[in-house]
Write a structure and sequence with these properties.
681 residues; 9-stranded mixed beta sheet; 16 strands; globular; binds 2-acetamido-2-deoxy-beta-D-glucopyranose; hydrolase; hydrolase activity
């Protein structure tokens, strides 16, 4: 194993350090360090924003060892103690050091030095030209064999493992492994296409099992389709699924009596004063619970892995895997859906020269994620969820009582919506009287949200699940005394399994038999920006605001991984913060449904705008999460041509969903679109 230590070692003692310039700019004058940083005594690391550029080290700290930097942060690590956070990227020290090129850096450095002859500047200059490289190793050949995993049912899929360093910058952190799966190319093999289904925390093995054949078709059979359980996922990859409790029972007891188990009850657009008061009454207890949860996660068996499960490491895994399977320095082909697009936008910008054929479908907004607190903003996730709901209600009304029972006796969209809102109101009122009711309004909202992902299931949902909900809520409403033994609910609702199975980007509860998974939280929160002063009340206020302004139906859903982020105990060792507008070696496709409940169309537009000439937008005129949610011969043909011949449409392209695809009896996508008002419901 050969590697260069990633960081300069600073010969102690130093008493003062000048930092600051990023992207070739020198800041004058340097600002004094924040006062709380002046008196460092026992801190192992000190993170300072680049604006805070002059750090005076207290006499007791003379063992500064390493400097890390990224586009937006500089971090100092002190002797013997591990870094809690490490700033990003490849070019890290070049960025600290005043220039993209050595020449530029030198001249800027000299200029700076001439204005301020400070010895510690020279100290930095040594660092400036310490070229950093991550360690590389010749990976052993990958031997494919039969899959032992219960997630794999397709006998054509082969499995293997791939060793990874836990930390690409620190071999001392040890190694892990990825569980791999692939479908062989059926034509003359041109390489691999790597696939990530999203989540975060979705299993690549399961996704390959269910979507592999489709992906083979779309790519013409010329590529092996390869996926893997990323860090933090499943029981085969190491680090595997993140657990913080020994059992589901322990989890339930820990959160007994809180919204974590019961969800949030509200009606309309969350304007009712009592609803708000009740939510607020949980603020301090939930904040304590989440802090305690963080401690449990950190001290539990997954704790030592929390900092290694982030997206940057997963991107490096992808590239290392491509090196091993397709040869070093070859272009990397990748299809990412949902959260897989965040991996994708990090990948193409971290390794622009390695970009081969890439399709990103159902886009998570990388800029918002890199710059905003997703716990407060919701990360632009559900922006269009109510529009999809309007699509559902419109389709139901168009189909009428013959095709959609929710429309019974109702002819208009407004009436169908009113039926659903009445059901929510009744469930809400019942849950207010007895919080232990089998079906709360929060449960119904979760179930509806999960339906928004797949329009192909709308008719079945309206025919079978919805009437059961009506029945269950009816029983709750007519039951006056909580002494009456509860009837078993027709549907198990407390943990909607539809949500757990699906890539929701929002709520994920994987493998309940093994306990409650915190993989999604670990990945979202490990990579999210720091939010030290955010209180639970702020998170709640964001929820109320989104219920009023963004999504009346789904704004108040709880829990969601992203709300744990202010209280999460660690950040990932590497977080990519941009830029997201690099020029790529190959043009990529960015695809989106017009109305996607979890990844709004605007995100795709934003990513394409960022990538300029390097990306082309394909819009699918329909509903659901990612274009895979509905069949489109047009979208498939574009993907096929791109993967097989390299040909792309000349400009942004709009595809229809196939006309024969019925969402309700006699109602196809274009019929719904033609009748939507989007979304004044
Ligand atoms: C499958 O099981 C065998 C025997 O237990 C083991 O040697 C092999 O590594 C396993 N392979 C995979 C891909 O899980
Ligand atoms: C997959 O392809 C490899 C290499 O071409 C070949 O050795 C192997 O037998 C194939 N496996 C299956 C299941 O088709
Ligand atoms: C969870 O398991 C660990 C290790 O087995 C044990 O030390 C701990 O006490 C358990 N916690 C609870 C609450 O049962
Ligand atoms: C939750 O609390 C209630 C009353 O406070 C108690 O009766 C119940 O046993 C608790 N449930 C669990 C799982 O601890
Ligand atoms: C891969 O590319 C890098 C940078 O262009 C180059 O330094 C390296 O030698 C290449 N490695 C191989 C094996 O071609
Ligand atoms: C529909 O109308 C019928 C007959 O008027 C009535 O019995 C039934 O309760 C109505 N259903 C709904 C859901 O309003
Ligand atoms: C739902 O019920 C309607 C009316 O009976 C029927 O036409 C339709 O096929 C059903 N949908 C599904 C998916 O079974
Ligand atoms: C779920 O967890 C159980 C218990 O750890 C394990 O036996 C099972 O294989 C897991 N299922 C999946 C799909 O990972
Ligand atoms: C709703 O959005 C408007 C305009 O963006 C904003 O001014 C207002 O404060 C928001 N309301 C809430 C409750 O957040
Ligand atoms: C919230 O709902 C009320 C009552 O339906 C309505 O009057 C109000 O305009 C809604 N507010 C927003 C911001 O949509
Ligand atoms: C990328 O974005 C940055 C910051 O927004 C901007 O300064 C830079 O000019 C952009 N680069 C390209 C190639 O567009
Ligand atoms: C789709 O719906 C439109 C509008 O109702 C209709 O004109 C068209 O014939 C439908 N297509 C199919 C294949 O059913």
């Amino acid at each position: 194993m050969h590697w260069d230590r990633l960081i300069g070692v600073i010969p102690a003692p130093v008493t003062s350090l000048w930092l600051g310039p990023v992207h070739g700019q020198v800041y004058y004058p340097y600002l004094p360090c924040a006062s709380n940083l002046r008196n460092l005594t026992s801190l192992d690391t000190c993170m300072i924003d680049t604006e805070i550029s002059h750090l005076v080290l207290s006499p007791s700290i003379r063992t500064l060892r390493r400097v890390y930097s990224s586009a937006d942060r500089v971090m100092l690590a002190f002797d013997q103690l591990e870094c809690v956070e490490r700033a990003t990227v490849l070019e890290r020290l070049d960025i600290v050091c005043f220039g993209e090129t050595e020449k530029e850096a030198k001249s800027m450095l000299e200029e700076t030095a001439s204005r301020r002859s400070n010895p510690s500047l020279l100290l930095l200059s040594l660092l400036a030209f310490t070229h950093v490289s991550i360690f590389t190793r010749a990976s052993p050949p990958i031997h494919w064999g039969p899959c032992n995993s219960s997630s794999i049912t397709n006998p054509a899929i082969l499995c293997s493992f791939f060793e990874i360093p836990l930390d690409y910058y620190d071999p001392e952190a040890g190694t892990g492994r990825l569980a791999l799966a692939k479908l062989n190319a059926t034509q003359e093999r041109r390489g691999s296409v790597f696939f990530n289904p999203g989540g975060p925390g979705g299993s690549g093995l399961e996704a390959l099992d269910s979507n592999g054949e489709t992906l083979l078709e779309v790519t013409g059979g010329f590529y092996d389709i390869v996926s893997w359980d990323p860090r933090g996922v499943g029981s085969l990859t190491i680090p595997g699924e993140i657990f913080c409790f020994n059992s589901t029972e322990e989890h339930d007891a820990f959160f007994n009596g809180t919204i974590e188990l019961a969800g949030i009850e509200y009606t309309g657009n969350f304007t009712d004063a009592t609803d708000i008061e009740i939510l607020y009454s949980q603020a301090s207890i939930m904040q304590q619970k989440y802090k305690k949860l963080g401690e449990k996660c950190l001290s539990g068996p997954s704790g030592k892995y929390l900092r290694y499960v982030g997206a940057a490491a997963t991107v490096r895994d992808l590239v290392a895997l491509a090196d091993a399977l397709d040869g070093p320095n070859q272009s990397v082909n990748y299809i990412g859906t949902s959260y897989g697009t965040l991996l994708g936008s990090w990948f193409v910008n971290m390794f622009p020269e390695r970009v081969g054929k890439v399709i990103l479908d159902g886009v998570v907004d990388p800029i918002t994620f890199a710059t905003k607190q997703i716990s407060l903003s919701g990360g632009n996730i559900i922006t269009d969820a109510d529009k999809v709901y309007e699509g559902f209600v419109t389709g139901c009304a168009l189909s009428g009582s013959q095709g959609c029972p929710i429309a019974s006796n109702a002819s208009s969209v407004e009436e169908v919506d009113k039926n659903i809102q009445s059901l929510l109101q009744a469930a809400h009122d019942a849950a207010r009287k007895d919080p232990s009711v089998a079906v709360s309004s929060s449960d119904i909202r979760s179930l509806f949200l999960s339906q928004m992902y797949s329009p192909g299931g709308w008719s079945t949902f309206a025919n079978s699940t919805y009437p059961q909900l009506v029945q269950a809520v009816g029983q709750e409403t007519h039951k006056n005394s909580s002494l009456v033994p509860r009837e078993p609910s027709p549907i198990s609702m407390k943990r909607p399994s539809a949500l757990g199975r699906r890539d929701t980007s929002f709520v994920r509860r994987a493998n309940q038999s093994a306990g409650v998974s915190y993989t999604s939280s670990a990945i979202w929160c490990g990579d999210s920006i720091d939010q030290p002063t955010t209180a639970m009340l702020d998170v709640f206020n964001g929820i109320i605001a989104r219920s009023r302004n963004v999504s009346r139906m789904y704004g108040g859903l709880w829990p969601a991984a992203i709300y744990k982020c202010p209280f999460w105990p660690v950040r990932s060792v590497e977080r990519y913060r941009g830029p997201f507008n690099k020029t790529l070696a190959n043009k990529i496709i960015v695809a989106s449904n017009l109305f996607d409940p979890a990844t709004p169309f605007a995100n795709a537009q934003k990513l394409v705008d960022l990538l300029g000439q390097s990306a082309i937008l394909v819009t699918q005129n329909g509903f659901g999460h990612t274009t895979f949610a509905a069949p489109s011969t047009c979208a498939n043909a574009i993907a096929y041509a791109y993967m097989v011949t390299g040909k792309l449409p000349d400009g942004p392209t709009v595809c229809d969903v196939d006309a024969g695809f019925e969402l309700f009896q006699g109602v196809n996508t274009s019929a719904i679109l033609a009748n939507m008002h989007v979304s004044g419901l």
